[in-house]
Every structure is written in structure tokens, then in C-alpha cells.
Amino acid sequence: MSTIELTKDNFDEVVSGNDFVLIDFWASWCGPCRQFGPVYEAASERHQDLVFAKVDTEAQQELAAAFEIQSIPTLMIVRENVAIFAQPGALPEAALEDLIGQARKLDMDEVHKSVAAQQAGQTGQAEQPGE
């Protein structure tokens, strides 16, 4: 599958419509972004069951701001509408493959439980131990 260009118009549809999305936040003037680009594209060819997407932070400044992108390239992985990884820096091929493998192995039921517990705690509705 080729890489999808994400914009503010298609972002929600692509991310919510797919269970596993890798997102590369980049810009054409960024040297490390240009180095990471071919590594990312090659991974997209090897993992055709996953969605690989790119956000041009210059053209999509609202998206970059919404995700508080401070440095590029930044790689984000979203599984089942939960951002499970976000880190700046160009990854070498082996590190990207390892990261994809780890993300595939995550127990998403546990992740969703953790997110629900965290959200309950933020609203003050979580049960305290001993209640």
C-alpha cells in the first residue's frame, strides 16, 4: 500500500477507519525527514496490512499544532483510535521494524482498559481503593 497524505479534511476518516495507522509528521525542508522518508516508504511496502500516512507539517499546520508536534520527523502510531506511540527523530530501518513488531504485540484490550481508567481518574469518578 502506498503512503497516504493526511490533511485536516481526511485525518479523522483515515485514523478512525483503520485499526493500525503509522503517521510520519515531516516537512520538505527537514534533512532528517528526507533521510527517514525512504525507510518509512520501504516499511510501508513490507507491511501492506497497515496504513502508513504522512502529515506535511508546513501544509497542515493545524494538525501539527493539534498534536503538539515540536520536532520533526515525529512518528506516531495509532491503534484502534489510541495513540500508543509518539516520538521525534528519524529511526533506522531495524528500529522501525522493531517498533512495528512491538506495536503489533500490544494487547489492545489492556490499552483500552488503561485509557478508560485514566479518563475516569481525570473526571474524579474513579473508585478509590477500599471503597
Lateral strand order in the biggest sheet: 1-3-2-4-5
Structural class: alpha/beta
What is the averaged pLDDT score? 91
Rg over C-alpha atoms, rounded to the nearest angstrom: 16 Å
Q: What letter string, H or E per element, gives the SSE order? A: EHEHEHEEHH
User: How much of the residues is beta strand, in percent?
Assistant: 15-25%
Bin the helical content: 40-55%
Low-pLDDT runs of 5+ residues are 125-131
State the major sheet: 5 strands, mixed
Number of helical stretches of at least 4 residues: 5
Question: Can you walk through the features of this model?
Answer:
With 131 residues, the chain is an alpha/beta fold. It has five helices and five strands. A five-stranded mixed β-sheet has the order 1-3-2-4-5. The protein is globular. The C terminus is likely disordered.
Give short descriptive properties of this protein.
globular; alpha/beta; 5 strands; 5 helices; single chain; disordered C terminus; 131 residues; 5-stranded mixed beta sheet
Question: What is the topological layout?
Answer:
Layout: E1 4-5, H1 11-16, E2 20-26, H2 31-46, E3 51-56, H3 61-66, E4 74-79, E5 82-88, H4 93-105, H5 108-122
Parallel strand pairs: 1-3, 2-3
Antiparallel strand pairs: 2-4, 4-5
